[in-house]
Amino acid sequence: MTRTGLAAGLAVAKSAIHGKGCFATVAFTRGRKIAEYTGEKITNAEAERRGHRRILRISGLDGRWSIDGTRGGNGTHYINHSCRPNCFMKTARGHLLVLALRDIRPGEEITLDYVSTMHSDRKRCACKVPGCRGTINKAPASR
Fold first, then answer.
1. Which of 87, 99, 100, 113 has the fewest CB atoms within 10 Å, counting from its CB?
2. pLDDT tens sequence across 96-119
3. CATH class of domain segment(s) 10-112
């Protein structure tokens, strides 16, 4: 389940949401840092170019930079989307941190609400939680 280079307290395994997922191997309390999202730091223009690949594991860092977790990442690029997430991301001093929204038990899948991605706004969500909005991207308010 674990491998070299994986963030401490995390494991990658088969996910009921989508393919592989990132799972807690230790308890994380609300507000605690779970890990840093790591990988190759690339320009947003390069992220857009790479975004045409089928599998995306790129996260925006700021208005200029993104991180491609598939290149030198620590397993956090396997965090799947959920409409009822248990963590969130925060940028701090050029680092993209993953923090617990609530207490997380060992064995629980770590999930984020992606809110806005390079995927089409029609990309279907597979989280299956009550109240799922049906899409990965959060639909903009009525125009």
1. 99
2. 999 999 999 999 999 998 877 666
3. mainly beta
